[in-house]
Backbone:
């Protein structure tokens, strides 16, 4: 199962991905998490040792340039760069969960460094094709900038949405773009849902029920403030996370 998560900044994508990773792991699945956020902090959320020491691959300009085969002053680069050895070199682990910190993959419109981005996309595609049972991809933006090869490796998109008008508007926009990219299996996850009224507001605004709704959890807030892994919050939100995993496995 290859799952990407998307949604507005700060809605809880990394939190929910980390909880999912831990839940899948506890069920005995092999889990690989890919952090493709421009300011990655999945390592901290999962409880990796010394997360501040991890450098996202997107910042390793020399490595990326070398792999891209780009020569200074020339417009040409290798569109088929060799990346097979990179997962082994850069994957870290937290309690059996594997993590690769990729960092930002830029969209073509943002005046990207194309040679470097080609290497990153190639690596991402490669990671999505790995035989891990569960691959979770955490991103800031939507999926539309990833390119067809990579998107073909994602079989499900989860859009995190909080119960507000602007939240719903963004979530619907992401869904539309995802469908244009041919990701057919798109679902919403509600976050910071306080009560039935919030849940109903989401259902009506989205035109469907979210696959799961997470409450505003004291445990999550406390752990974040202490700099502790959010995965320890499963004592409070374990039931919902387990139900979400079951829903993901069943449809
Ligand atoms: N269900 C929740 N209950 C309480 N706090 C939450 C919840 N979900 C997220 N948060 C907090 O909200 C902030 C943003 O969450 P994060 O997962 O980093 O969002 P994103 O990855 O979408 O930017 C963090 O401080 C996190 O601890
Ligand atoms: Mg995040």
Residues:
């Amino acid at each position: 199962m290859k799952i990407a998560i998307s949604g507005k900044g700060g809605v809880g994508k990394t939190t929910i991905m980390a909880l999912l990773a831990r839940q899948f792991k506890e069920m005995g699945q092999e889990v690989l998490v890919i952090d493709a956020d421009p300011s990655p902090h999945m390592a901290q959320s999962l409880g990796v040792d010394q997360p501040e020491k991890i450098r996202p691959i997107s910042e390793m300009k020399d490595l990326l340039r070398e792999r891209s085969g780009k020569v200074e002053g020339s417009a040409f680069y290798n569109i088929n760069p060799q990346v097979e050895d990179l997962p082994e070199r850069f994957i870290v682990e937290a309690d059996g969960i594997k993590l690769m910190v990729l960092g930002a993959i830029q969209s073509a419109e943002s005046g990207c460094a194309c040679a470097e981005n080609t290497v990153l996309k190639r690596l991402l595609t490669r990671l999505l094709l790995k035989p891990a049972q569960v691959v979770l991809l955490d991103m800031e933006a939507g999926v539309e900038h990833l390119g067809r090869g990579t998107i073909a490796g994602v079989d499900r998109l989860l859009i995190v949405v909080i119960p507000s008008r602007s939240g719903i508007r963004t979530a619907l926009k992401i869904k539309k773009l995802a469908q244009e990219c041919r990701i057919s299996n798109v679902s919403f996850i509600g976050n910071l849902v306080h009560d039935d009224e919030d849940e109903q507001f989401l259902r009506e605004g989205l035109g469907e029920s979210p696959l799961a709704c997470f409450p505003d959890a004291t445990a999550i807030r406390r752990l974040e403030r202490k700099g502790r892994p959010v995965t320890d919050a499963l004592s409070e939100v374990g039931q919902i996370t387990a139900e979400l995993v079951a829903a993901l496995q069943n449809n």
